[in-house]
Specification:
Blueprint (H helix, E strand, L loop, with lengths): L1 H25 L40 E7 L6 H6 L4 E6 L7 E2 L7 H11 L7 E5 L15 H7 L2 H7 L1 E3 L28 H11 L10 E2 L5 E4 H4 L4 H13 L4 H9 L11 H13 L9 H12 L25 E2 L3 H9 L44
Parallel strand pairs: 1-2, 1-4, 2-3, 6-8
Antiparallel strand pairs: 4-7, 5-7
Bound molecules: 2-acetamido-2-deoxy-beta-D-glucopyranose (2 copies).
Keywords: Membrane, Transmembrane, Transmembrane helix
């Protein structure tokens, strides 16, 4: 009796030990069978990310982070591809011309900017970690892809890079936007036939960012599709986004121009809000070129506490310090990394042969509207093959 009870206890212990060893061996997060990529087979799924129930963690997407897509769409756009291919991401589809829509904007003005700002304002206190601000249709010439396909752009997007940068433009090719789309001072008052914000930029800039020095040149690869971390958005107060949106609501500028002023302002702009940010920004700017820029009053006030900081020792910050002001998302007014570096960091495409502004993946299209049936129908209305197989 006593003996058999002991055996039973020993068996029980054995079963328990075996059970825990098995868990240790098999659990994908703890397990010894886990491979270097953190997944079981090393292959990202078709969405470039994780599907529900899928044990694989993509190389590019951190599973724990919440990703949101923010789209400004109108009645004729088709956003179903986002739902088909990225079921795991939160979709915020703003309808700019439908007052019955779930997500709408206060006024259909300023193109995509109105929707982007409305998202930031309405979600300011509860922002997803990583936010992709994009245009609605899968195929549209703004996409940096040989077929103007938005799918590979999103699939290849490198979230760890976004997390290190805070702001990342979703385009690397320089044609349109880089190296200097707008020369606000030289072009002031100019009116070109094609939509170009140069003539109105300076005045708009001074209204948007009063007291900030107007940059001599502004450049960023075009088209207002970019990604932002929650932290980057929250570097500015909610009131700032409300102020920017009020400008859009009130401006007399044509939509195409006001939208474009913001298109060429998102990357740059505004005083760092905290001492730490100010210090980082200051060190960063000093490592870069020392453009002589005037000091705005608001910045002087913000930076005042820095002068009393002793550790880490600040470079002396006087109103004459060559401090490059950071306007919306903290990049230089000309933000044009080399195409090679950009494709590698933003999309993980690191083995391309490139010149400074192109790696041959993007050609400006002859017209801004793609032919009906694209990518299977070409500009000549004849059948076309995709330039790149759909992966
Ligand atoms: C939207 O696009 C999908 C393909 O992504 C297509 O199947 C669907 O018919 C389109 N919807 C409309 C209303 O055109
Ligand atoms: C990189 O490109 C070179 C030449 O273009 C090619 O020989 C090499 O195999 C490529 N490497 C990878 C990892 O694709």
């Amino acid at each position: 009796m006593l003996l058999s009870r002991r055996i039973t206890a020993r068996n029980g212990a054995l079963v328990i030990v075996t059970f825990f060893v098995a868990i240790l061996l098999l659990h994908p997060r703890i397990g010894f069978l886990r491979d270097e990529t953190g997944g079981l087979d090393g292959l990202p799924d078709s969405g470039g990310a994780v599907r529900k129930g899928d044990k694989q963690q993509s190389l590019a997407v951190n599973n724990d982070k919440k990703v949101a897509i923010i789209v400004a769409s109108s009645k004729n756009d088709n956003t179903s591809w986002l739902f088909d291919y990225f079921p795991q991401w939160e979709k915020n589809v703003y309808m700019v011309d439908n007052t019955e829509a779930k997500l709408k904007v206060p006024k259909n003005k300023g193109r995509e900017s109105m929707a982007y700002l409305t998202f930031m304002i309405d979600n300011y206190d509860n922002l997803p970690d990583n936010n992709l601000f994009i245009h609605p249709n899968r195929y549209q010439w703004h996409n940096d892809d040989p077929d103007y396909d938005g799918l590979p752009v999103l699939r290849h997007f490198q979230f760890p890079y976004l997390e290190s940068e805070g702001y990342v433009n979703l385009r690397c090719a320089w044609s349109m936007g880089c190296p200097s789309e707008i020369r606000p001072l030289d072009e002031e008052g100019e009116h070109r036939e094609n939509v170009h914000a140069g003539g109105d930029y300076k005045k708009a800039f001074l209204e948007l960012f009063p007291g900030q020095p107007v940059p001599e040149r502004v450049g960023v690869s075009c088209c207002a599709q970019f990604a932002l971390t929650k932290e980057k958005i929250r570097e500015k107060k909610k009131e700032e986004y409300i102020r920017l949106r009020n400008w859009l609501l009130e401006t007399d500028l044509d939509d195409s121009i006001s939208g474009r002023v913001l298109e060429y302002s998102w990357h740059t702009c505004c005083c760092p809000r905290t001492t730490r940010q100010a210090f980082d920004a200051h060190s960063k700017c000093h490592a870069q070129s020392r453009e002589d820029m005037a000091h705005s009053d608001s910045c002087t006030t913000l930076l005042a506490p820095l002068r009393r900081t002793t550790s880490p020792a600040p470079v002396s910050l006087t109103p004459n310090t060559n401090f490059v002001l950071l306007v919306i998302f903290g990049k230089d007014a000309v933000h044009c990394p080399s195409a090679k570096e950009c494709y590698c960091k933003v999309f993980g495409l690191c083995n391309l042969s490139c010149d400074q502004g192109s790696c041959g993946l993007f050609d400006l299209p002859p017209y801004s509207t793609l032919p009906e049936g694209w990518p299977f129908v070409g500009w000549d209305k004849k059948p076309r093959n995709r330039a790149v197989a759909e992966d």
